[in-house]
């Protein structure tokens, strides 16, 4: 219908058209900005552990602005909708795009798993890498907002309580019909991420799959991208202890492995990536599990001894021999003493000098604490223990700084069961969290 209005100022008459749809008037919304805050957390559902899903909570905050400007100059921006009084979408607020298509992702994952199951015998490393990379290519992010999204596309997501109860969207609600809660884009993204994460976990936990260092690296990067570090401790444990399948006389047999062997140590770069993923996800349990299966494992310590301790040990062993040969040559350059006595004097002086200097340097290197922030070694800890477990101490220091207060003057004020457990765990590893004598102003 048309309604005639007279303008208070001299000029032509103004005509406004109002369209009535289902008993409601479509009016121009005031200039409001809306901000939606959603917090959600969903744990990975795996066969080896079950977790409770935290409820998803959402709260909307609306800030009003002045509407004194001419409304005729306010044009709705593309890709933006708002919620009107009766739940109808109107162009004013930011439009939240729908989450990824769960059905399409599930179909893609099922195709990859079906193709991987079709392989006969023991899958090769290349086949496993191809399956993992195919799963990793699945995009679990919500689609970007485009100008093609119209306000009415978001109407089912932005229905108000009055519209849900009274059925003002043009369809009368039937008696006894249950109101189905609409899942938010964040929840749908989490469901898709869980589907992809479970598929990758299912591939690596199959008995016939051999977990190599390349496969482990791809898996850790995938779970870090998805924000799902819950399965990383078990996969890191399987990397060192999973039985190796072998084809013998047409049948598959499994050979046990020694998890403490140096060849089964996790690469430090992969361990660092896994630890960063657990810290970013704020999962203390996963972070400690990753620590115990990487830096604290016997395989990692033996690998460190072979890579970083072999050459220094060889140098320490060969130094006396080299000094004795040098002393013998020096004894031939003098005529005051007999060559035998001169060799002994030169050897004793050189070995004392080298030994004293090397000892001072070794003590200064092993007792340096400039790299320590919160976790330090306890008094009386042997130097060999400090050198072997330095990576573990650095990882615990990083965990404590990430889960505790960021302000330096508030170190040691953390409370809660998890942080108290972390403090006791660090103490059991011959370390101290927030030693008082090393705090600023106490030394």
What would you say this structure looks like, in words?
With 443 residues, the protein is an alpha+beta fold. The chain contains 14 helices and twelve strands. It folds into three domains: 167 residues, no CATH class; 80 residues, no CATH class; 123 residues, no CATH class. The strands form six sheets. It has a two-stranded antiparallel ribbon. A two-stranded antiparallel ribbon has the order 3-4. It has a two-stranded antiparallel ribbon with strand order 5-6. The chain is flat and about 95 Å long.
Briefly characterize the structure.
This protein is an alpha+beta fold. The chain has helices spanning 102-117, 125-136, 161-166, 185-204, 213-226, 232-241, 268-280, 284-292, 298-308, 310-331, 339-366, 383-388, 390-403, 417-428, and strands spanning 2-5, 14-17, 20-21, 24-25, 32-39, 57-64, 80-83, 89-94, 244-248, 251-255, 375-377, 431-433.
SSE string: EEEEEEEEHHHHHHEEHHHHHEHHHE
Total individual domains: 3
**How many strands, which pairing sense, and closed or not: the largest β-sheet?**
2 strands, antiparallel
Note poorly predicted spans: 1-96, 147-178
Provide mean pLDDT, rounded.
Answer: 75
Span from first to last CA? 83 Å
- DSSP helical segment count: 14
Determine the fraction of residues in helical runs and give it as a percent range: 40-55%
Strand order of the largest sheet: 1-2
Proportion of beta-strand residues: 5-15%
Q: Report the count of strand segments.
A: 12
What sort of overall outline do the alpha carbons produce when their principal axes are compared?
flat
Task: Please tell me how large the radius of gyration is.
Answer: 34 Å
Structural class: alpha+beta
């Amino acid at each position: 219908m048309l309604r005639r209005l007279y303008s208070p100022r001299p000029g032509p008459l103004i005509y406004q058209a109002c369209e009535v749809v289902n008993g409601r008037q479509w009016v121009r919304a005031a200039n409001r900005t809306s901000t939606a805050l959603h917090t959600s957390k969903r744990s990975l559902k795996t066969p080896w552990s079950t977790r409770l899903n935290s409820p998803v909570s959402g709260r909307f905050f609306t800030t009003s602005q002045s509407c004194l400007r001419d409304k005729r100059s306010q044009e709705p921006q593309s890709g933006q909708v708002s919620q009107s009084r009766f739940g109808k979408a109107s162009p004013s607020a930011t439009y939240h795009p729908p989450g990824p298509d769960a059905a399409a992702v599930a179909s893609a994952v099922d195709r990859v798993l079906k193709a991987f199951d079709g392989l006969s015998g023991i899958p090769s490393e290349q086949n496993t890498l191809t399956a993992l990379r195919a799963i990793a290519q699945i995009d679990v992010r919500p689609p970007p907002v485009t100008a093609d999204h119209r306000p009415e596309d978001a109407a089912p997501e932005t229905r108000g309580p009055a519209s849900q109860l009274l059925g003002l969207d043009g369809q009368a609600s039937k008696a006894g019909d249950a109101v189905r809660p609409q899942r938010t884009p964040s929840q749908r993204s989490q469901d898709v991420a869980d589907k992809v994460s479970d598929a990758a976990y299912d591939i690596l936990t199959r008995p016939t799959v051999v977990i190599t260092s390349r496969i482990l690296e791809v898996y850790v990067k995938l779970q870090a991208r998805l924000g799902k570090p819950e399965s990383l401790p078990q996969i890191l444990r399987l990397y060192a202890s999973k039985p190796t399948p072998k084809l013998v006389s047409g049948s598959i047999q499994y050979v046990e492995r020694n998890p403490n062997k140096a060849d089964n140590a996790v690469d430090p770069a992969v361990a660092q990536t896994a630890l960063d993923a657990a810290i970013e996800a704020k999962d203390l349990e996963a972070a400690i599990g990753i620590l115990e299966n990487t830096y604290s494992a016997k395989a990692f310590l033996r690998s460190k001894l072979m890579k970083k301790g072999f050459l220094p040990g060889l140098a320490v062993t060969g130094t006396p021999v080299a000094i004795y040969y040098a002393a013998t040559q020096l004894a031939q350059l003098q005529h005051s003493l007999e060559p035998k006595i001169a060799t002994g004097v030169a050897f004793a002086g050189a070995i004392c000098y080298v030994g004293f200097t090397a000892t001072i340097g070794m003590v200064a290197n092993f007792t340096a604490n400039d790299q320590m922030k919160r976790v330090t070694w306890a008094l009386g800890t042997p130097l060999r223990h400090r050198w072997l477990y330095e990576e573990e101490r650095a990882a615990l220091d990083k965990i404590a700084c990430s889960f505790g207060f960021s302000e330096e003057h508030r170190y040691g004020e953390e409370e809660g069961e998890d942080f108290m457990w972390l403090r006791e765990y660090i103490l059991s590893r011959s370390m101290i969290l927030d030693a008082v004598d090393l705090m600023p102003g106490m030394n």
